[in-house]
Amino acid sequence: MSFKSWLVRSGVVLCIGSLACGCSTILPSPPSASSTAVSSSSLTDTNESGLTVEEQKKVDAGEYVAASVKHRAFNVPKPVFPEAAREETLEGAEAFIRYWVEERNYASSTGDVDDISRITAPDNDYEQDFYRDLRRWYSKREWLVGLTMKVDFEDNDFVLGQDGFYRFLVRPSVSESKYCKNIDYCARDSGDMFRGKPGIVGLYYDEGWVFGQLIGVEGINYEE
């Protein structure tokens, strides 16, 4: 069964904010009420990359510097694939999901989407579109600020569905983020739409784990 067929049968798809979910994102061209404008006067003592003198010293020393409305992130640590995530077990699945989240956060900070694309279902249009957006934005020297996903696990059984998918109940959260087109304009995203409520991660195993989708649980109102 394809991912799309499984998705239709499994529940409600949630976009965790337009940037976070990977839905086709339409960003406003002019600044709006929800946008953050950065005045040129706030760039005092920064270089062409928007870094302060102290931040540039950290970058030169190979230290991580988080993204801000003035600059992209630098020296972002690359996630390391855990050996436990190779196993077709509950522990292996949870280790893989944690790794997938780390890779997604890394891609959001760098535009390097090669690994996250490879471990995500190719017919997951929501995520794959997001990865293409990331690649395009960073190639144009645009960047994201603050987009971080976290996942906590509920008690789960390790059961393979008849459709070939394993499903795991989780509590996801996504931080509010900004898309920065340049140092003078950043558009704010809506942040976490799960609101502390559970979701379902679907995975399948094909010589290694593949991420299907994070969806809402049928019957839960995510608007409240």
What would you note in describing this structure?
With 224 residues, this protein is α+β, with helices and mostly antiparallel strands. It is built from six helices and nine strands.
User: What is the CA–CA distance across the termini?
Assistant: 33 Å
Q: Tell me how many strands there are.
A: 9
Rg, Cα atoms, Å: 19 Å
Uncertain segments: 3-44
Largest sheet: 5 strands, antiparallel
* Helix run count: 6
Q: How much of the residues is beta strand, in percent?
A: 15-25%
List keywords for this structure.
224 residues; alpha+beta; five-stranded antiparallel β-sheet; four-stranded antiparallel β-sheet; globular
Please describe the topology of this protein.
Blueprint: H1 3-10, E1 12-13, H2 18-21, E2 35-37, H3 53-60, H4 90-110, H5 114-118, H6 125-139, E3 143-145, E4 149-153, E5 166-174, E6 178-182, E7 185-188, E8 199-205, E9 209-216
Antiparallel strand pairs: 1-9, 2-7, 3-6, 4-5, 5-8, 6-7, 8-9
Task: Summarize this entry quickly.
The chain has 224 residues and is of the alpha+beta class. It has helices at 3-10, 18-21, 53-60, 90-110, 114-118, 125-139, and strands at 12-13, 35-37, 143-145, 149-153, 166-174, 178-182, 185-188, 199-205, 209-216.
